[in-house]
Design a protein that fits this description.
Distance between the termini: 95 Å
Radius of gyration: 26 Å
Oligomer: single chain
Strand order of the largest sheet: 1-2
Shape: elongated
Order of helices and strands: HEEHH
Structural class: mainly alpha
Number of strands: 2
Largest sheet: 2 strands, antiparallel
């Protein structure tokens, strides 16, 4: 009986996931097609050119990482090849995991050694 109760939930989950993927594909096709019409078919990072069948290797990257931010002028997009696009997202996720200072914040001093601490006194003696 318990397995029968779980089956409708599984079917519901599969249906939900399939619908979400379909919607994403439709949304992606819209802005991808617009980006391909607006920009030259060149990767914005490595400079490789794409044409014909290889055009499918060129992806649209959202500069602010928000896939719902698709302005009509394409200002949030850049065309990247699969490799550069993966690299961009891995750099972004590594930065989130880092415990170091964020951009624009000062870095704390780790070393306490100051090689010029007594220099003023040495120069006064001469």
């Amino acid at each position: 009986m318990a397995s029968d109760e779980k089956q409708p939930d599984k079917d519901k989950a599969y249906h939900f996931i399939a619908e979400a993927r379909r919607e994403q594909e439709i949304r992606m096709q819209g802005y991808r097609e617009r980006a391909l019409k607006m920009f030259p078919h060149v990767c914005g990072r490595c400079g490789r050119e794409f044409e014909g069948k290889r055009l499918r290797e060129l992806t649209v990257h959202h500069k602010d990482h928000d896939h719902d931010n698709n302005p009509p002028d394409g200002s949030n997009w850049e065309l990247l090849c699969h490799y550069c696009h993966d690299n961009e997202h891995s750099r972004y996720s590594v930065a989130e995991w880092s415990e170091g200072p964020e951009a624009g914040q000062g870095q704390t001093t780790v070393s306490t050694y100051n090689p010029f601490s007594g220099l003023g006194d040495l120069l006064k003696k001469k």
